[in-house]
């Protein structure tokens, strides 16, 4: 009996819902929350030592450069050894990381 009542409850609760239509009129019927109106647009830009080699195999992310080296990713390892040598650990990129051309105002103007 309990399962039957739960079933009936679910059926009735689903049938009383107003159907959403993917149209502007349907969307305009719903009020925009105040928090959304007050929200500001923001961009989060991050970088790290992976920005120095700035390389990843097609379809992957350069941010995973170190992870690829540590886990034996052959494409990243091959690239690293070819361009930086076998005796160049990832931490040595810190000496090459020099964002002197970084201009936050120029980045902000893009958005």
Distance between the termini: 59 Å
Average pLDDT level: 85
Number of helices: 6
Helicity, as a percent range:
40-55%
Low-confidence stretches: none
Radius of gyration, in Å, reads: 26 Å
Main pleated sheet: none
What string, H for helix and E for strand, traces the elements in order?
HHHHHH
Q: Main traits of this protein?
A:
111 residues, mainly alpha, 6 helices, 0% strand
Set down the secondary structure blueprint.
Layout: H1 2-15, H2 24-28, H3 34-38, H4 65-70, H5 74-84, H6 104-110
Brief write-up:
The protein is mainly α. The protein is built from 6 helices and no strands.
Could you describe the 3D structure shown?
With 111 residues, the protein is mainly α. The protein has a domain at 49-110. Helix content is 43%, strand content 0%. The protein has helices spanning 2-15, 24-28, 34-38, 65-70, 74-84, 104-110. The radius of gyration is 26 Å and the shape is elongated.
